[in-house]
Amino acid sequence: MLNEVQLLVGTDRLEGWEAVSVQRSIDTLCGNFSIDMLDAWDLDTVIELYPGLPCNVIVNNEKLISGYIDKQIPRIDSTRNSITITGRCKTGDLVDCSATNNPGTWKNIELRGLVKSLLNPNGNTFNIVLKVDTNLGEKVKEFSINTGETVFDAISRVCSDRAVVPISTNKGELLLTNIGGNKAYDDLTYGVNIESAEGEANFINRFSTYIVKGQQSGRGQGWTKQTTQKIGTSRDDYITRFRPKVISAESDISSIGAQNRANWEAQIRAGRSMLLTVFLPTWQQSNGELWKENLLVYVNIPKLRVDGELLIREVEYKLNHNKCSTRLTLVDPSIYAPSPKKIIEKKKRKKIMWIK
């Protein structure tokens, strides 16, 4: 199958790129792209691809990014003209821009309604559609924006208390979801469809104990109203040194909520400390579908002691001088489980580790 990338700007479809990189991840919210063209256009035409233009990135006739051009870098020397275009999907504005809602405090509101307010502050709008495909849990009892924080940071804070993950869709929408609902068509096997692989174990952001502290408002009004401190604690048995981490809950939280947040922190940090990166010589699976983020896939790499099901956290499609490749970053899918456990136990380790 011919591998091609098209940049759709208005009604114009531009293709024939010399080098391409398209990345999507379930952790960074917005997909991004970088494309290079050599010896193709005169400089006057190139300038029309200016930053801020809406665009779509199409890979093998499938839209992967709907967003805007961020940067244009034209180059010229004695032998050739060239241009590099980079950009991101629409949700990049949520990563860059501050939350400006006024007042910036909500009480007893559904999570969907709170996120909608952040996407449409005080009569303005980021023009981003909100989608939900999971149970968002109980109402948010109280939540306040921190001065200067971005919209994405605010959304991430309130979602983290209930193990909901905000990601972007290929249409530039914001999706509130749980992770790992679909499986890849192919397995990944070293020597079959994996050209090379590397593991990473990084425990810098991993701690022995997680303590989440928050407050829950009591009954009463005015000076009679009281608040009660709520604490949740979770432990990671892999970390044998004394490494405590205290986290302040971002909203009015119950005892159950504080415990769930502590469990979530232990789980997500443990999972992100172990990464597997594999490199494939194609963009597609054997059924013609592109490799995608948020797919579960069976991986077998005996020399790295990997034998089990992992989650594709990030995918990068690359094209360089007509040679295509895919880089997949994989993690243990249990790190995004909606009901994390209180203790990360050594004895529960699966055969998906490359360290003893």
Full CATH superfamily name of the largest domain: Baseplate protein-like domain - beta roll fold
pLDDT < 50 runs, ≥5 residues: none
Kindly give the count of domains.
Answer: 4
End-to-end gap:
41 Å
Instruction: Tell me what the CATH architecture of the largest domain is.
Output: Roll
Count of extended strands: 23
Q: What fold name goes in the CATH topology slot of the largest domain?
A: Phage tail proteins - horseshoe like beta roll fold
What is the CATH class of the largest domain? Mainly Beta
Helical proportion, percent range: 10-25%
Structural class, please? mainly beta
Major sheet characteristics: 14 strands, mixed
Listing every helix as H and every strand as E from the N terminus to the C terminus, the arrangement reads EEEEHEEEHEHEEHEEEEEEEEHEEEEE
Averaged pLDDT, please?
Answer: 86
Rounded to an integer in angstroms, the radius of gyration calculated over CA atoms is 23 Å
How many helices in DSSP terms? 5
Basic shape: globular
